Automatic annotation (TrEMBL):
Residues 7-208 form the LarA-like N-terminal domain. Pfam families: Lar_N, LarA_C. It comes from the Bacteria. This is Nickel-dependent lactate racemase. It comes from Nocardioides imazamoxiresistens. PANTHER family: LAR_N DOMAIN-CONTAINING PROTEIN, LARA-LIKE N-TERMINAL DOMAIN-CONTAINING PROTEIN. Residues 272-413 form the Lactate racemase C-terminal domain. Signal peptide: none annotated.
Length: 426
C-alpha cells in the first residue's frame, strides 16, 4: 500500500505492506477566510474581556511568538492583534519577542519569512536570548522551586500577550499557552530546572498529560504568577491552516484549546506494533535530528519492546551543528550508557534533554532514520543507522518476524499521538 509521509517541504511516498495501520489526525479543513476568523475569535474570548478592553491608550505591548522551528501563522495572528488594538496602541510601542527558549536566535531572513516584510519593517522584533543575563529580570522562585528569570522587555511591558499554537508535546503534555512565557522567554537556568532529568523522567511528563505533569505544572505556575494580559492560540491542520482559535485569560484559554487539540490529534489503537514508521511532521519541524526526537517519541508510545521505529526526517540543518547535541550523542558507547549517565546528573545542558529521551528510546527499541542531509557515518555517531528505502526495510523486518508482524505508520508524525489504552490524563 502506498502511503505519503510529511517530509521536508514536499512529501515522501513509501510502499508499505498491505494491512499496515495508518494513524493520522482527523482532517479538519482550514477556516475559509483565516484572517476574518481570527478577528471573530478575538471578539469572543473563552474567558475574560476582549483584548481591546484590557488595554489603555499609550501602554507598551510585548507579544511573544514561536521561533522558526514551529509553523505558527504569525503573519495572520499579529495583524489580527494589531487590528484589535488599533486606536489604542501605536505600532512603535509594540515589541514582538521571538520565544526561542534555548534555541538559537532567528536570522533577519527567517524573521521576514515568518511575519512578512511589512510587519518586519513595522514592528520591533527581538530574539530572546536565554544566555544573556543582562537582558533578563529576576521574578522569583515559582512552582516547585523553579528560579525564574524572564526577558526584561516582557517583564517591563504594560501589556503582555502570548501567541502560539497547540498540539500534543512529548514531555510537556501540550504546546502553546503558558509555554510562550517559560521556557519561551526564560533564562537558561530557569529552563534547565523546568526540564531537568527528574521532571522529564517522570512518567506523567508525556504526551497529552497536563495535571500532575511536573513540567507543565511549573510552566503553568510561572505564567499564572507573572501577569499575562492575554493569550491567543490556534490549532492547525496538516496543511498548516487554522482550524480552531482560542483567546482570553491564559489558563482557561489553554484548557479549551488543548481539549480541541486532543480530539483532533490523539488516537487509540488496539495493541502495540512490531514496526512503527513515523515522521517529524515535515518542515519546519524536521529540519534537524534534535527535533526529530518528537517523531521518535510519538512512535515509541505504540511500539513493542524490542521493536523498530523508522523515522523519516529531512534534517537539512544536520544535528544541528550549533550546541552540544552531537557531542553528547557521541560521548558514550551505547544509548543505554547515555541514558544512565544523563539520568544520574542533577544538572544538564539543554541538548541533553533531547538526548536523554532519544537514548531512552534507543535503549529499548531499534531506531532507523531516513534523511536527506545526514550521512550513514554521521548517524552512526548517534548510534543510529540509515535506510534509503523505508518500504524495503519494513518488509525485511516483517519477513524476519513472520506473518503476524504488525506495522503502523504515522504519516504526520507527532501531529498524531497514538496510545494503546485510554490512560492519557487531562
Amino acid at each position: 500500500m502506498d502511503v505519503t509521509l510529511a517530509y521536508g517541504e514536499t512529501r515522501l511516498s513509501v510502499d508499505l505492506p498491505e494491512g499496515t495501520t495508518v494513524v493520522e489526525p482527523s482532517f479538519h479543513p482550514g477556516a475559509p477566510d483565516q484572517a476574518a476568523y481570527l478577528r471573530e475569535v478575538l471578539a469572543t474570548p473563552v474567558s475574560g474581556p476582549r483584548l481591546r478592553d484590557r488595554v489603555r491608550p499609550g501602554q507598551t505591548v510585548a507579544i511573544s511568538m514561536c521561533d522558526s522551528t514551529r509553523p505558527q501563522p504569525r503573519h495572520l495572528m499579529l495583524p489580527a492583534i494589531l487590528e484589535e488594538l488599533e486606536g489604542l496602541v501605536d505600532p512603535s510601542d509594540v515589541t514582538v519577542l521571538v520565544a526561542t527558549g534555548t534555541h538559537r536566535g532567528n536570522t533577519e531572513a527567517e524573521i521576514r519569512a515568518m511575519v512578512g516584510d511589512e510587519l518586519a519593517d513595522l514592528l520591533r522584533i527581538v530574539n530572546h536570548d536565554a544566555r544573556d543575563r543582562d537582558s533578563l529580570t529576576w521574578v522569583g522562585e515559582l512552582g516547585a522551586g523553579v528560579p525564574v528569570w524572564l526577558n526584561t522587555l516582557w517583564v517591563e511591558a504594560d501589556v503582555r500577550i502570548t501567541t502560539g499554537f497547540v498540539e500534543p508535546h512529548f514531555f510537556a503534555g501540550f504546546s502553546g499557552g503558558p509555554k510562550l512565557v517559560a521556557p519561551g522567554l526564560a533564562a537558561l537556568e530557569t529552563v534547565l530546572t523546568l526540564h531537568d532529568a527528574a521532571r522529564i523522567g517522570d512518567p506523567r511528563a508525556t504526551w497529552g498529560v497536563i495535571e500532575g505533569n511536573p513540567v507543565h505544572d511549573d510552566v503553568r505556575a510561572i505564567a499564572a504568577a507573572t501577569d499575562v494580559t492575554f493569550a491567543f492560540d490556534v490549532i492547525l491542520n496538516r496543511d498548516h491552516e487554522i482550524v480552531r482559535a482560542f483567546c482570553g485569560d491564559i489558563l482557561p484559554m489553554h484548557e479549551a484549546a488543548r481539549e480541541a487539540a486532543r480530539e483532533i490529534a490523539m488516537r487509540e489503537v488496539d495493541a502495540p506494533f512490531d514496526v512503527v514508521v513515523t515522521t517529524n511532521s515535515g518542515y519546519p519541524l524536521d529540519q534537524n535530528l534534535y527535533q526529530a526526537v518528537k517523531g521518535m517519541s510519538a512512535a515509541f508510545t505504540v511500539v513493542k519492546p524490542g521493536g523498530t521505529i523508522i523515522c523519516a526526517a529531512e534534517c537539512r540543518d544536520g544535528f544541528p551543528d550549533h550546541g552540544s547535541y552531537r557531542e553528547v550523542l557521541a560521548s558514550a558507547g551505547s544509548p543505554q550508557e547515555l541514558f544512565d549517565d544523563i539520568s544520574a546528573r542533577t544538572e544538564t545542558v539543554p541538548d541533553q534533554w533531547q538526548v536523554q529521551i532519544q537514548a531512552k528510546i534507543q535503549s529499548q527499541v531499534e531506531v532507523v532514520m531516513h534523511t536527506s542531509f545526514l550521512s550513514d557515518e554521521q548517524l552512526a555517531e548517534a548510534h543510529l543507522r540509515q535506510t534509503d528505502d523505508i518500504g524495503a526495510t519494513v518488509r525485511e523486518i516483517c519477513e524476519r518476524i513472520g506473518p503476524d508482524a504488525r506495522v503502523c505508520v504515522l504519516p504526520e508524525g507527532p501531529q498524531t499521538i497514538p496510545y494503546v489504552a485510554a490512560t492519557v490524563g487531562a
